[in-house]
Design brief:
- Helix content is 16%, strand content 34%.
- Helix 5 packs parallel to helix 6 and helix 7 packs parallel to helix 8.
- The termini are far apart.
């Protein structure tokens, strides 16, 4: 029966494709085609073919509205307008500074008997597509969206990589499943069909809407499922109109094509800021990891981490090593109430944290302070102090802030609903007025708003480094899964770079208290040291952290890579890789190049052509590699550093131990 339905759907697909060419729009290279369909009930549907073959079978459009407005049925087409765009725009920072935006657009204007106006806007790129809804409902003074009807009806079985749908966290381990066995998923969800076509379903420009997850409704059919308000409404709007985020489908012939795509960014609005010269990528260290290990605490006391003395020490280390920023967590009043009222005071330092002395000293040393605003989920308390808190920081010369939302939201709201999406955007917009950048933890998913607000520098939004401190940790495959899933949305503040792999120094520290969540003997980093170095390149963030306690870097030869590394890159390219298996990525920063490669639990060797280097230039390649006897389980700290002279005509054998990696800096020889 299933095979019969597939054959029937394919016949419908090809019949529809040939019925009305005016409702078909293709990619500039002609390989991706989208068709808008209407059936006898005037129910809107769409379908997608790639290379002339069905990829998305006829799939439904529309929304349900709680007050009875018809947003899905009986629409007829008024007119269709087709446009083309081929431009190159630049951004102040990013994986690539110059972005080509090349697509064909189909704008379909429709109405129904209730005079609801709907514009369906499609943009088709060579590497995928996006579509969105633009509604106007005459006579409405408010709209209450109760459900989204958008479907993704896949034509073929596929292997998928995703995390389960959850409206409060993305910090879940990825699973590899046949697409037909995925009950629900957050996005991006990545998949590979049996004929090796790769795709990722996500969204772009999520600004005033709940997040979209996917819910399987048939064997290979998925429907959009939106994060609700406490009363069950999915989205609410004052007035009679709304525009949705883009629903996106990235498409590639090889896995690294998804990483190299700029589709998500291109579907966001251009920069809204008058100037961006105050926004700067940076490398940073911070008072942070010691708290997770139990060496230090966020609360003032005998183990307090954010003290004036400790701050001076970290600032000195940063200045000595050419590191631009230092983060301080646990500096302000309110941490003593953790788990209770969660009412932080964002302008009241603890008594042992002298903000004036610290900020003056940092300025003298040429080091930036990265501030920290933990909310504990109490966003109402944070919003009531937001302007005052940002102005207070700005008065001390602090223009970079890490935010956090580790806790339940008030009044039954979830983290990913429209209420909090509006909050996250409000924080970024407000921060821009104070020339302040944001690095959000426990965020809403990244959907490319950094194009519009480039002060939205980085965010967490997946299981990061701290999970290694108080759980079984992140397995080796996790780090080579993220570039093909979570990072398709945008940068991640994973905070790599732990050198004390087995926590030997931490366990010997007399100040340490036992971990709360798991016996400390089972806690460790599940990689080799060389892989930790490679992750600085692989897991892109314009604010990249060397996350270990600085004592573990002092005098360590391998830390030279981070000294040489540049967070502000100009070009990036994923060279090789498969989701959850391995990846190799190169980034150029000025005249320097940095290569990062990593593998899962399987040892492997890659052959990498160095044709990304500038022709005719000789480079000193500093190779930070797993030692021959390295293994992430039995010998994780064994590494080698080798130097050789290379050019663009050479190839490099990248040998990686199980759970390992390799990092290479290419610096022109003078």
């Amino acid at each position: 029966m299933r095979n019969f339905l597939i054959i029937l759907s394919v016949l419908v697909f090809f019949t529809a494709c040939s019925s009305d060419k005016n409702t078909v729009v293709t990619s500039p290279d002609g390989n991706v085609a989208v068709t808008l369909l209407t059936d006898d009930s005037l129910q809107l549907r769409y379908q997608v073919e790639v290379d002339g073959k069905p990829f998305i079978l006829p799939s439904r459009f529309g929304f349900d509205e709680r007050q009875g407005f018809n947003l899905s049925q009986s629409f007829t087409i008024d007119n269709i307008k087709k446009n083309q765009c081929d431009e190159t725009w630049t951004q102040p920072w990013g994986e690539n500074k110059a972005i080509r935006n090349h697509y064909n657009e189909m704008e379909v204007r429709l109405h129904n008997p209730e005079n609801v106006s709907l514009t369906l806007r499609f943009r088709i790129f060579d590497d995928g597509l996006g579509f969105r809804y633009e509604y106007t409902v005459p006579g409405a003074d408010s709209l209450l969206v109760s459900d989204e009807l958008t479907q993704f009806n896949f034509a073929k079985e596929a292997t998928s990589w995703s995390i389960p749908a959850n409206f409060d966290t993305y910090e879940l381990l990825y699973r590899r499943l046949p697409l037909s066995q995925v009950e629900n998923a957050n996005t991006p969800i990545t998949l590979r069909t049996d004929d090796s076509l790769y795709a990722s379903i996500h969204e772009a420009a999520l600004t005033d809407f709940p997040e979209m997850t996917l819910l399987r409704t048939d064997s290979l059919q998925f429907a959009a499922n939106l994060a609700p308000w406490p009363d069950g409404v999915k989205a609410r709007f004052d007035g009679n109109s709304f525009t949705t985020p883009w629903r996106t489908i990235q498409i590639a012939r090889e896995a690294v094509g998804l990483i190299n795509s700029s589709l998500i960014l291109n579907l966001n609005e251009p920069c809204a800021l008058d100037s961006t010269d105050w926004i700067h990528p940076m490398k940073y260290v911070g008072v942070w990891w010691g708290m997770h290990l139990g060496i230090e605490s966020w609360v003032m006391g005998d183990r307090h981490g954010a003290t004036t003395e400790n701050a001076i020490k970290y600032i000195d280390f940063a200045a000595k090593n050419g590191i631009e920023g230092v983060l301080f967590e646990g500096w302000n009043a309110g941490w003593e109430n953790w788990g209770g009222s969660q009412t932080f005071d964002y302008t009241k330092p603890y008594d042992d944290f002298d903000m004036k002395r610290i900020s003056d000293y940092a300025r003298e040393k040429g080091v930036k302070i990265i501030g920290h605003h933990e909310t504990g989920g109490n966003v109402l308390n944070y919003e009531s102090q937001l302007d005052k808190a940002l102005q207070w920081y700005a008065d001390y010369g602090v223009h970079d802030v890490k935010t956090g939302y580790a806790g339940g939201l008030p009044n039954g709201h979830n983290h990913h609903g429209q209420f909090n999406v509006r909050h996250y955007r409000h924080v970024v917009q407000t921060a821009a007025r104070y020339h302040t950048t944001i690095n959000a933890h426990e965020p809403i998913k990244d959907t490319g708003i950094r194009r519009t607000y480039p002060n939205m520098m980085s965010r967490e939004g997946a299981r990061g480094m701290e999970w290694n401190a108080w759980s079984d940790g992140n397995p080796p495959m996790h780090h080579v899964m993220l570039p093909f899933t979570r990072l398709l949305g945008g940068p991640m503040d994973y905070t790599p770079g732990i050198f004390d792999i087995l926590y030997e120094n931490a366990k010997n520290n007399p100040n340490r208290k036992q971990w709360n969540m798991k016996d400390s003997k089972d806690c460790r980093i599940n990689t080799t040291l060389a892989k930790q170095i490679a992750l600085w390149v692989i897991l892109y963030s314009p604010v990249q952290m060397a996350s270990d306690c600085i004592e573990n870097y002092e005098g360590h030869p391998a830390f030279q890579f981070f000294r040489d590394f540049e967070a502000d890159c100009d070009e990036s390219r994923a060279l090789q890789g498969e989701p959850g298996e391995f990846v190799a990525i190169v980034r150029r920063a000025g005249e320097k190049y940095f290569l990062g490669a990593a593998t899962n639990e399987e040892a492997r060797t890659l052959t990498v052509k160095l044709d990304f280097l500038k022709p005719g230039v000789a480079y000193d390649a500093a190779i930070y590699a797993d030692a021959p006897d390295a293994d992430w389980v039995t010998n994780p700290k064994a590494y080698t550093i080798d130097h050789r002279t290379v050019t663009a005509d050479d190839t490099l054998e990248v040998r990686m131990a199980a759970g390992g990696g390799q990092a290479v800096s290419f610096i022109p020889k003078r």
